Amino acid sequence: MLSPTTESLIARVSTGRRAERLVAILDMITERGTISLTDLSDGLGISAATARRDLSDLADQNLIVRTHGGATALERGGHEIPVALRDTRFQEAKRAIARAMVRRLPTGRYVVALSGGTTTASVARALANHRDITIVTNSLTIANLLSSNADVRLAMTGGFLRPQSLELVGALAESTFNAVNVGTAVLGADGVSAQAGVTTHDETEARTNRAMVVKAQRTVVVADGSKIGNVAMAQVADMDQVELLITDSSADPTELERLRAAGVQIVIADQE
Question: Exposed, middle or buried, 11 (CB in 10 Å: 0-12/13-18/19+)?
């Protein structure tokens, strides 16, 4: 079951435009540290009442700290945008990455493991016409996307639900990944860097996805350019465990060179 605050946010984000605005507010607060209602209203061209309501919703999700007349960023470094908001970002890049990923899967019977995330969800959508494929996932979002596709065999892990990402995590999820043989593990990420590897915001989620990597014959990371060079709290995999990174042309070229030097193949999806 989703937490009440998560359900409230999902219910209130009724349009893509509002979701994009909430993400923009998070980015502004993270960049400046603090912001006033006046600056927010002027910067986004919205009314004070709208700005006040948006800040209240974000504070309810523990993404910001509400103050008199504005808001401040949380003291901890980096915010994790809830899955209800993430899918509005970099949509064209994610679709291109997904198409590039699917082109690199073999035809015929094959097992693919998909972690949670909006880019891996795009991969799931792109698999709509792929036959004789088995998908193993711990993501409720991906399971829902594939549930009506008769040509895809779908296996879900058990585990405890993490509301921020709608992923099942923990020992039950890990035991499912430990019990199957996977051809390709497709990982989303909050950060990808040559030094820190593939990282995410939550340690339990990282440990669950690590079990997926260990059982796979190869691991592919799918991440838009905003994730390249970032480092989140918990490591999922070292870069020497990753065969291929599929990203887009907005990725930092210097960091891509470091990743190539570490032995990772790079595909720039929107230049294919």
Answer: exposed
8 A C-beta contact, residue 64 and residue 54: no
CATH number of the domain to which 197 belongs = 3.40.50.1360
pLDDT (tens, 9 = 90+) of the chain, 272 residues, equals 444 444 444 445 445 577 778 877 887 887 688 889 898 888 888 898 998 888 888 888 777 889 888 898 876 544 556 555 555 567 899 999 999 999 999 988 899 999 998 899 999 999 877 888 999 999 998 998 898 888 899 999 999 988 778 899 999 999 999 999 999 999 999 999 999 999 998 999 999 999 999 999 999 999 999 999 999 999 999 999 999 999 999 999 999 999 999 999 999 999 88
Answer whether 0.85 is exceeded by the pTM: no
Angle 172-202-182 (CA atoms, 0-180°, nearest 5)? 50
Residue 248 lies in a domain: yes
Is there a single domain that holds both residue 155 and residue 186? yes
Roughly how many angstroms between the first and final C-alpha of the chain, as a whole number? Answer: 41
Report if residue 82 sits inside a domain: no
Tokens of 239: 């870069």
Same domain, 105 and 233: yes
Point out the domain boundary residue: 17, 52, 75.
75
Judge whether 197 and 232 are in contact, CB under 8 Å.
Answer: no
Domain ranges, residue 64: 4-75
